[in-house]
Amino acid sequence: MSNVRHFGATGDGEADDTEAIRHALSEGDGVLHFPPGTYRISQTIEVPLADVGPCGVDGTSGTARIIMTGAGPALRLVGTHGGTGDPHSVKGNVYPTQRLPTVKNIEIEGAHAEADGIELVQTMQSVFEGLLIRRCRHGIHLVERNRNVLISHCHLYHNTGVGVFLDGVNLHQINIAGSHISYNRLGGIRIERSEVRNLQITGNDIEYNNHASHNTEPEPTAEIYVDVSEPGASVCEVTIASNTIQATSSPGGCNIRILETPGGNDLSPHLWAITGNIIGSQETNMHLSHCRGMTITGNCIYSCTNRNLLIEDSHHLTLSGNTFRRHAPFYGMGVRMERSHDITLTGCTLYDEHETGQESGASLLELVDCNRINITGCQLLDGIPCSIDAENCSNVTISSCTIHDTRAETKSIHAVRFMGEGTGNLIATCNIGQTIREALLLVETAGVEIHSNSLP
Length: 456
Prior knowledge:
The protein is mainly β. The chain has one domain: Pectate Lyase C-like, CATH 2.160.20. It contains 3 helices and 44 strands. The longest helix is centred in the first third of the chain and has 10 residues, at 18-27. The radius of gyration is 26 Å and the shape is elongated. The termini are far apart. The mean pLDDT is 93.
């Protein structure tokens, strides 16, 4: 291996080792080996994969550290792959000399306000394992075009920008697994202005990614932040599974935020599965805007100051087997759907476990200007003022639900309240608790039929 000390690097944390590392890169055997020590650099170490051939960076089981004292990334990996993930689209010397650039077992620390960790440009099958990137701006920054990226067992920690930033990138196939992505001011994993397919976020701890630990003004962000509002942007074929996604409440903050704007040429986020996560402690836990074709199942979603789940202008969503709850000191909770249609909510539990009741004044489930919403087999407990509130909704079916107030002092006014205009709404075979004062409030114009319910 190309031991960077053999090319003049000192690793003493004082001398500028930039040129020595560049020398090792250009004249060595393709593996930049950093023995234990602190390597100070003042400029980006750019790795032109087409020229240097297959390349790896190794930090001796995490005992080596790079301190970046200048602006830009400490390491920039640059390839020439312009194809897709299809093997037949890979041209020229991409496989012989550019495949599988690997960075592992090293720390990168920023010592400049605009220092980044690692930047990727047109790479093929990059691998990052065992990294600690901290006090930088962005941890791992992907731009332009990349394919088949693996990020695992990394700590992307306390950076002023984003932990993993997909920034105006065309990217297919990226796996982010088993990593700790926390205390990054502008988000844990953030996607903007990008076209992304096949994204797996699995088994990570993604927490506290907001301004709170940086002594700066609040800025709306999220642990996982996806913005496809720019023309041509889209993020599809995504799995978010088995993560802890938690935070401290911040103005405009979310744990998971997915945003699209109207008129997006049907490029709205779709083909997503969000499954088996612990999601909690933010202003809004999940915010979906202009989304379609998503499954959200088996999550524990808790503790917010606004809503557990806010859905706007979305359709064809399946929500099943989720628990939505709040506990002190948070005062908001519940699910709110606005201007949405063709949504199934089944087998979910919504409850306020705090004796005094939520202080936001919002019912457990709110529907506004919605159509074709099926609510089946759910438990809705201790709602204030109602368990289910529907305004200007049509073709809402509420069936086989349990709607109770379990508190010593009853606070639920209505189990279900329909207001405004509507047609084709149905309430059937629900068990409505005896302690709810006025079980149903149904405005005549709301078009509601009632069948075979247990009513107080």
